[in-house]
Amino acid sequence: MDGVTPVLVPPNEEGTRATVLKWCKSVGDAVAKDEPLIELETDKVTVEVPAPVDGTLVEILKQVNDEVHPEEVLAHIRLAGDRGHAAPPPPAHDDADGRADADAVANADAGAGANESREDDDKDARLSPAVRRLLRERGLRPGDIRGTGRAGRITAEDVERHVIARAGTAGAHTIERVPHTAIRRRVAEHMARSLAEAPHVTTLFEADLSRVVAHRARHAEEYAARGARLTLTAYFVRACAQALVIHREVNATFHADALELHADVNIGIGTALGDKGLIVPVLRRTQDLSLLETARRLHELVAAARAGKLVPDDVRGGTFTISNHGVGGSLLAAPIVINQPQVAILGVGKVERRVCVIDAQGEEAIAIRSMCYLTLSLDHRALDAFQANAFLTRVVGILETWPQ
Hints:
By secondary structure, this protein is α+β, with helices and mostly antiparallel strands. Helix content is 32%, strand content 25%. It has helices at residues 95-106, 112-125, 129-138, 156-168, 182-197, 210-225, 232-246, 291-306, 385-400, and strands at residues 4-8, 18-23, 30-31, 36-42, 46-50, 55-60, 67-68, 73-79, 200-208, 252-254, 259-261, 267-269, 271-272, 278-279, 282-283, 320-323, 344-348, 352-360, 363-379. Strands 9, 12, 15, 16, 17, 18 and 19 form a 7-stranded mixed sheet that branches. A 4-stranded antiparallel sheet has the order 1-8-6-3, with no helix packed on it. A 4-stranded antiparallel sheet has the order 5-4-2-7. It is elongated. The N and C termini lie far apart (70 Å).
């Protein structure tokens, strides 16, 4: 179309699929270049697509919950100053037309059923795949819903509003279906694929974190004054970073013909997003970070993840993952599904005070210690028990001898 610019799904180097999360503008709205136009949700981050030019949004091709792919056209913008081809106004009705209209109304009841069927067919032809799916899941017909999209097109939001309104009149015991977010769907696909492809094995160790807990208690305020929230996760990152430099086969990517050993230790941190799912922001080059730098960067990434402000680079390039499931009260989780193509993931259980038998100057004694379970779930194609146990032995040793 002359004078019209397409709005495209941005390319991405990983070929990640995306879903339309929200339109920031409606058809007919004026838009400015680089102004946020639409939000896309991938399995990793939410991406804003800006308007490529100044003008007017004249057509939306993808609705909320529609799946889109790189370089696909989302909408069209008519350039500023280009009026385009206006649609002709509807013809004016004189008295004769009015009488004809009255006659038509008088005969309408006879064909009501046929008209309703034709209306359903007309609306159905313009539905997006996502809307078709929603209607099918909820047992609705297109004619049941008033569309608010362009030219009366039914959107996913229209369906949801109709369902909510209907539920409000159906009583308090109505069963609710909550559509999966794009993140939830992609995580589910990724986890199922990982379990299907990689033989998972989990090894379990117990760690005495008494020295780590004591160090944190002494330095938390100091770190906070320097802009870093000192969490226990920061200590696990530091211990893993040191161990992975030595046990390079754990900091690796599995390929059918080789194991790729990485020079940089890029550790992903599993971060829960409430009901939306899970995301794994990545701390890069952790082998070069101090505890202070680790704590600061960790806090920044987790905060950005929960605020929905991560950018694609924040979730790329991980070589190892830590899942601190203990923050939710879990003592042990096994296996934790590997974030392929990585070959291992560390699970950290809840830290709790437990009664232990310790060696006190050559004598056995009973003491209370801050203990937690550590698990390493590994891809048995890439690693065996000897390598996994050697890695975890080193991680536990670093934590238990933390300098004071």
